[in-house]
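Good morning,

Both structures are done.
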Amino acid sequence: MSSSLLPKHLHTTLKSHAQKVCSLYKRALRNEMDKYDDRWLYRYHAVLLRARFDKHKDIKDLRKAKMLLEEGEKELKENLHYQPLKFSYSPGGINYGRSVEIPDWVLDFWHPLEKARYPEYFARRELRKQEYIERWEKKYGKPYESDHH
């Protein structure tokens, strides 16, 4: 999951100022794409946006750079398109979560006759499961077994 989609308290890495500026630029560019249907009009506004970013690229004073970044974030928030484009398989997209990944444990409940159709696969699978259990027990120890049966 992209760190920009995570809530602030769940971020695990720090972003440099340059990464924050790049992120702002990309989001602003996507917002321009949402606003303009005509490709030429979008490209015109994209060039203007790039010029605005390039105008401040050589600022050495970090306080001023941070202030510009905060103003840019505020401006983007104020000018967000009311119906942003969503990629279909991204969160909020029309296909997000549509194809469900079937968990591996479902194969444990196959009937033996079904498993007999793929003997090599299930033999290798049982071997891998056993190796996984041994690795887990080596790392964490045997599971706790109580005296209450």
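Second structure follows.
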Amino acid sequence: MWAVPFAHADNNRLNRSVVSNVYTVQRQAGCTNPLTVSPQLQLAAQWHTRDVLNNRVLQGDIGSDGSTPQDRAAAAGFHGEVGETVAINPALAMNNLEIIRQWYYDPADYAVMSDCAYSLIGVWTENMLDRTVVVAVYGDPSPPGAD
């Protein structure tokens, strides 16, 4: 009996493209800071991506356990302020331009994505045959109250 090969998508290239596109949006908004990938924010993005992928009633920032982006980032070890954008596509695949367009033309998502205080980011993408979810978690590493 032959085993059917299991295909697992490697979304690292897509995730890096999203980071690059967010960097471009920040530059267009006048930001001058670098945009650096944070392992803690990437972990928080991974947790929420998998939650949204597997719980179809979820459509935004609140997790199935009631957690917020701030809760997940803190649990992942990040202690600054965070924002989040979520893209959902009812198909197996999604490209970086589709993702950025969703966020760019949504005023709330654009405000998060173009906020110059967010110099750290974590992006995670997961797919099913009929659903792709992308989560970006943005972080301001400044201690709370430091202006």
